[in-house]
Amino acid sequence: MRHLTLFLIVVAIISISSLSARQLQGDLSSYQLQIMRSTDPIKVDGMLGEDSWSTPNVASDFWQQYPKDNIKTDVRTEVRMTYDADNLYIAAICYDVEDYVVQTLKRDNGLFTSDAFGIIIDPVNSNTNGFLFGVSPYNVQTEELLGPNATQPDRMTFSWDNRWYSAVTRHPDRYVVEMAIPFKTLRFNSQNSTWGVNFFRNDMSRNQKYSWTPLPVNFELYDLGYTGDLKWDIAPTKNGTNISVLPYVTGGVTRDNEAESPRSETSVRVGGDAKIALTSSLNLDLTVNPDFSTVDVDVQQTNLTRFNLRFPEKRGFFLENNDLFTEFGPNDAKPIFTRRMGLDMDNRPVAINYGARLSGNVTPNTRIGLLHLQTKSNDTVPGQNYSIAVFNQRIWSRSVLRGYVTNRQAYTQDDGWHANNYGRNTGLEFNYLNNSGTWNYFAAYHLSAKPDAGYGSFTNLGIEYAGRKWKARINYWNISSDYFADMGFFPRLENYDAVRDTLIHLGWERIYGRFGYVFRPAKGSKIVAHDIELRTYNDLYPDGTISDLENRIDYKIKFQNTAELQLQPQLLKTNLRFPTDFTDAAPLMPGSFDYGRFNVTYQSDARKLFSWQTEVGVGQYYNGNLTRYLLQLNYRRQPWGTFSVGWEQNNLKLPDPYGESNLRLVNARAEVNFSTKVFWTTFLQYNTQRENFNVNSRLQWRYSTMSDIFLVYSDNYTTSPFLQYNRNRAILLKLNYMFNL
């Protein structure tokens, strides 16, 4: 309680100061684009030869958004829009091209690191949800659903795929973009004659970004709080049904050499997905016997912490509208983490029978999400029935009240429901965001229920400021020891005792603070920005004693040529309560440890055909020393190929009898794009901590819209001794095809 009182005092001081904060958003009422119905058929060829494109309604005079804002750019961009009964059309002429920078021809990749043009659409004028469509000069398409996570680039998945069309023509001084977005693809209110819209452009040769409306440099190009108005002559309506069915068939040969009786097995699987638009803004997604064999493999990490690492969700069924389900809680305390679904207690994949997800708007201000999933039972674990219900209610302009209920219940066909094998959670969150997006206040309360544990609670409070120069975040949470989240991610709740070989479930309390300042030198400097942040967090055991304490400085220098240098000194304190394994020798025994570290990271000019990144970390680690080296080499053969090799070495040396450990992680990746429809990706990973060498090679042919043929080969070996023993091997062929009904 004493920590909560201190937190509230600090919040009150910052809140009072915010009353006089100047709004950054400004008046956007003058940014209006009239859209008229086309007078002739539009052919999407990038030529703009139709009479409809001679309209005088043009969005031009873009603003520079990065590295400087509040100035008009002299790089010309002109955008026009029209429509017919079926499609929304966009035409953009991007002038003053110096040189193209395109990272890849692979769909949904490299949009913000390549030259590109994009459009942001907010059909229901929510300022919190919308659509992004973008293309590179080589017509590489990217689309994404935008939600509250749109203000955080590392949270975007680019997993949403739907039908739309584009063509690009390249000229000596410009490139011309033409898009057609079917109204069936969009979710909108047919009563709205005004939509939110914005346009952006990446100019990588100059390392500049432009937007139609003035957008502060401290926000992303796709921030939905800074849209202009798209004025329709007649509000659009949807015609016909919007039902897509995507069946698949997968055949392959697998061999598990670690099984009791190793043998090669041939299998054929059939399943599919369906998307049904129940209304213009509410979708039902169904999956039967889903197959995730073609999903990108995880990028492995070296774990030197006492807790589990978080890997991102990549399975397509869980990703669309994922902000509805996964935005609850801070990064280290997520009550809903869909990656836990379809895994057993040892994090091994379990087959899924079926799933259903209903998501979207029921009113312009109300979004809902319902998710239901059933896994198969096997000889060791029962099937699991997962259910989630969420709501998201917009309040005022950009603020949100949201809540959820989750239920995991064990089930087998022979025994029915397992009455004492369940986990249930519920929570309510309020998130206030002012119109300009600079001030964010949030509060949450969560409950859990589990057999033999009773009821647990999780409280979260915080405030965040994101200005052009100053930024700050203060966050406090308290998780009780009787709180469980079977569908969540709370790594610190499980503490491993290496002597007793058991897990101890223990709650914790955290006080987190981040305060920063960004200094942007005058025009002409080789440095774009000096970004300095002070970060601190204090984790406490339930009895109020310190568990972990970190104080660090993050100093990042961003150069005009896209290079970055980061310096990071750290002071840490750990009160180790349980014996912990860090090496193959004796476990480190409980005690109090004070130690310091220093890390330096440099990333070279990403626009070059050859780029590199290096990191060096030196200093203490508990009662020993840890040295960390990282080197990443990248080569881009524009635009058809990207190749990279990475090496990470961690040398940990503890005093006797705790031993030492030299951990090595090496990876190599090759992406060859034969066209914008045929891709070949091969990924090699050598990890001495996991004692595994992995090969994953995938050939993909998108032979029709949203329809693919995949050929996937995977192979795993032990690394001790090097590649002596093959663990498992598989080769799979998958075919899917989208039917539009």
From TrEMBL:
**One Pfam family name from the record?**
DUF5916
Domain DUF5916: residue ranges: 243-343
Give the source's domain of life in one word.
Bacteria
InterPro entries in the cross-refs: Carb-bd_dom_fam9, DUF5916
Q: Which SUPFAM superfamilies match?
A: CBD9-like (SSF49344)
- Carbohydrate-binding domain residues: 44-212
Classification via CDD domains? CBM9_like_2 (cd09618)
The protein's name is DUF5916 domain-containing protein
